Each structure stands twice: as structure tokens, then as C-alpha cells.
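Training component of the fellowship. As part of building independent skills, the fellow (R.M.) carried out the full modelling exercise for a liganded target. The chosen ligand was uracil. The inputs are recorded below so that the supervisory panel can assess the work.
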Amino acid sequence: MKSRTSRLDRFISQNSTFSLSDTRLLLAQKRIFLDGRAAHSIQQKVTEFTHVVLDGRCLRDNRPVYLMLNKPRGFVSATKDTRHSTVMDLVHHPQKHELHIVGRLDLNTTGLVLLTNDGAWSRKVSLPETKLEKTYEVTLSRPLTDEYIRVFREGIYFAYEDITTRPAHLEILSDYTARLSLVEGKYHQVKRMFGFFQNEVLALHRVSVGHISLEGLDEGHCRQLTCEEIAAIENQ
Ligand code: URA
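Fellow's submitted model of the complex:
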């Protein structure tokens, strides 16, 4: 997701009939307002969520939106699909068309999906460097052993990407079920990690991303994140 932050004079020249060099005069005449205050420098930053008014006309008025969804099986993590319903079919929000999915789940995976129009926030969620844990409950076709815990902690080599997976934490809950926490999200990562042991994943459910937990949200339902949930990622 590309950053939409630009310098004020560039923003004005791209979003009005005025040129880069006209901006200084507009500033002197107090004709530009950023978030309700008269702008004072051509170098001020205009982010994707800055409210910009020029001569009483609104040039940008985007509000950040942060949603979480409890994805059922059979819904594609995409904004459009010709064959299946998409997670967007479960979202009812006036700015729905602006949203992107933060960390897709496979068609048959269930659970927590985050959606936002804030590119900087979603990058924080997705980048392994942020070390934000994504936790999954997994049901396997064959019994688990303690060997899995060691191998997942040490990392598994994925030849296709030529990478070794970052240390992951596995908690064995029963012979066939476990909770797995990862800080990255490679393609089909959980299935491929258990695939290392030729152990097929029968059910996969994402229960949390950092401090954001699915608890209390019914399947197929969507809600806005709280200020605390949004800030917990920003401050990560
Ligand atoms: N890992 C997978 O294999 N599938 C998902 O949907 C998510 C993580």
C-alpha cells in the first residue's frame, strides 16, 4: 500500500488549478486550512487523513477506518471475486470501497480479518519487523509431538522463497489440536509448516493479531476497532 503523504505545495498543485509556486501566495492570504488551522508553510505534510480546505472548498476529507471481521469458511479474502462471496460482502460501512484487507486468510480458513484504509497502520500489522503475533488454532490430521515445538522455534526452510521462517511458538492443546503464533505471513505459511511433517491441516482459525482478539464477535460479523486496539498497533 503506497503512502499518500505529500508536501503541501505539491498537494495543492495536484488537487487544484493553482501551481506549486502559487502556494506561497495562498498561504500569505490565509486561504488554505489544514485540520481547521490556517496553513503556514509550503513544507507542511498532507497525509491521507489530513482535512484540507482551499478557499472554503474541501480538497481532502478522508477518515481513517479500522474494522475487524470474523470470516466464515468459503469467503475469499479479496475485494472482488467471480466465483465466491468475498469478505467485503460481510462489511457494511459507508467507506467500504476504500478498505483493503490486512493479511489475507485462505478460502477455508476462518477467523480474524482486519480491514482499513490506513496504509501506514496495515504495514505495521504485516511487517515481520514489528513482531506482532498472529495466533491460529489448528486442527491436524495426525497426532502432534514435542518435536514440532522445537522445529517451529528454530524455523523451517521454504525453498520457493529461499527463506527460513522466523521463530514461531507452538502450544500443543491435544493430540490433534494446537495454538500457533507467528510474526510473519508467508503464502499458506501455517499449512506449509505442518506440511514439513506431512501433517495435513484440517481446520485453521485465526484468533488474534497482537492484542486484537476475535472473542465476542460472532461468525460473519464485523465491528469497528476500539481506540485502544488501534493504538496498540500504532505504538507497537
Ligand atoms: N496460513 C495458512 O496456511 N493459511 C491461512 O489462511 C493463514 C495462514
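The panel noted the following from the submitted structure. Helices lie at 8-15, 23-28, 119-126, 146-154, 189-195, 227-234. The CA atoms of residues 34 and 52 lie 5 Å apart.
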